[in-house]
Amino acid sequence: MKRIGIYSNDSLVLSELVEKINKDYLSLFTTIYTDKGYLDTLEQIDNVRITGISESFEDDVLIVLNDASKILDKIKEFKGKVIDFSGTVVNVNNVVHIEEPVVYCFENLLDERNPDYAVINLPAAIFGKAAVDDLLNQTRDIFSFVRNDYKVFDRMLAFNVFFLERSDELYKNYFSFLDNKLDFPFELRQLPVSTGFIIDIFGDIDFEEDDFFVKKHVYSLHDALEEEKVVVMKNGVKTTLVGDYLKIIIKQIIDEL
């Protein structure tokens, strides 16, 4: 068993990850490092300590979930293994990078042929817990006939779908991120769901069943989210992937522990 440190300022992935670590008895003790003012409402968890940024990290493994630019010098001095989902841990020898779930799916195509086109339907989770909270609050507000201010979404996402353009301010960085990763045309849509994603891929491509993907038919997004793996459904020239955004992140991290 290892001593695991986690740097995070957002509780969405963090809560699920800590629960998985504890459930699988992967950590002797877990320390959550966070900047002041974040995670103040996170409930206490057995064998988990929440603290500020230390002068040095004494853990065996350090997991980085959020932008670590401000503490990069401390991370460079860390002697253990670093598992980075933030994409900000650079010029560090002992680092393993965790792929963003949409990119991870496309990197696991069976051959090097690119799809002809893809329609990527995103969950609120791509923007963290604040976005998921917005979605829940908007849903309540609709039934209460009120409208409040929201932290992430300035439009009503609840019971809605956004057909996104590169000019959408909120999504500019995500468009740019995917443009740098994908070599084929795609469009983005925002679904009114917390963590489920749907990707329709057009072209002669395929996926192999493994620890992350399973070929089967499901009747609903809810059914797919009950699966531990990403569901792959083939229909002629279209392949549909349905899965849980958080599970892909967490499984990659757990596999590195």
Word description of this protein:
By secondary structure, the chain is α/β, with parallel strands linked by helices. The chain folds into 2 domains: 97 residues, NAD(P)-binding Rossmann-like Domain (Rossmann fold, 3-Layer(aba) Sandwich); 144 residues, Dihydrodipicolinate Reductase, domain 2 (2-Layer Sandwich). Helices cover 27% and strands 25% of the residues. It has 7 helices and 13 strands. The strands form 2 sheets. It has a 7-stranded mixed sheet. Strands 3-2-1-4-5-6 form a 6-stranded parallel sheet, with helices on one face. The chain is globular, with a radius of gyration of 19 Å. The model has no long low-confidence stretch (mean pLDDT 92).
Mean pLDDT: 92
CATH class of the largest domain: Alpha Beta
Helix vs. strand class: alpha/beta
Indicate the radius of gyration in whole angstroms: 19 Å
Spans of at least 5 consecutive residues whose pLDDT stays below 50 are none
Major beta sheet summary? 7 strands, mixed
Share in β-strands: 15-25%
Tally of structural domains: 2
CATH architecture identity of the largest domain: 2-Layer Sandwich
What global shape is seen? globular
Please report the distance between the alpha carbons of the first and last residues.
10 Å
Task: Provide the succession of SSEs.
Answer: EHEEEHEEHEHEHEEEHEEH
Beta strands, count: 13
- How many alpha or pi helices? 7
Strand order of the largest sheet: 8-9-7-10-13-12-11
From the 3D structure, determine the CATH topology of the largest domain: Dihydrodipicolinate Reductase, domain 2
Helical content band: 25-40%
Going by CATH, the homologous superfamily of the largest domain would be Dihydrodipicolinate Reductase, domain 2
